[in-house]
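ok trying again, last paste got cut off:
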Amino acid sequence: MNLIAAVDKNWGIGLKNQLLVRIPEDMKRFRNMTIGKVVVMGRKTLESFPGGQPLNDRTNIVLTKDNDYQVKNAVIVHDMEELFAELKKYKQEDIFVIGGESIYRQLLDQCETAYITKIDYEYQADVWFPNLDELEQWELIEESEEQTYFDLEYYFLKYQIAVQKPSET
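nice, full thing came through this time. structure:
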């Protein structure tokens, strides 16, 4: 499974249920990477989309504790057991966890790759992505050249779970 997120300098991802910033190239990258794939999100993330509607051309899976929650063109699951049963239907490499904070934290240990857009700016945020630089099981394996959007600088990063090397005897 994969994680995908845009984060600021402090790994902030949102404020008042909205993205911190919308960078066209980041949005294009997100779309290109997830089109035709499975996206896993929480209810609040879905509700932050235009019209609160699922993303087109993707299988949308929404995790919510609200048993009455329904939305057209999305699969609704209510707990981790139900989520994992649903995810067994798909190739692991085709699954992208797209937020929010609690969903990222709950599924971090189930993922192998994280695609991060790291924005070189500190925003006011009220939700954060786990800081992969501080987690020894994650390693940065790719970093793009500096990208710019007006006066913002950002990078496309790829992290993977570090492969445990067998200890020498």
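cool. Residues 17-161 form a domain with the Dihydrofolate Reductase, subunit A fold (CATH 3.40.430.10). Residues 140 and 159 are 4 Å apart (CA to CA).
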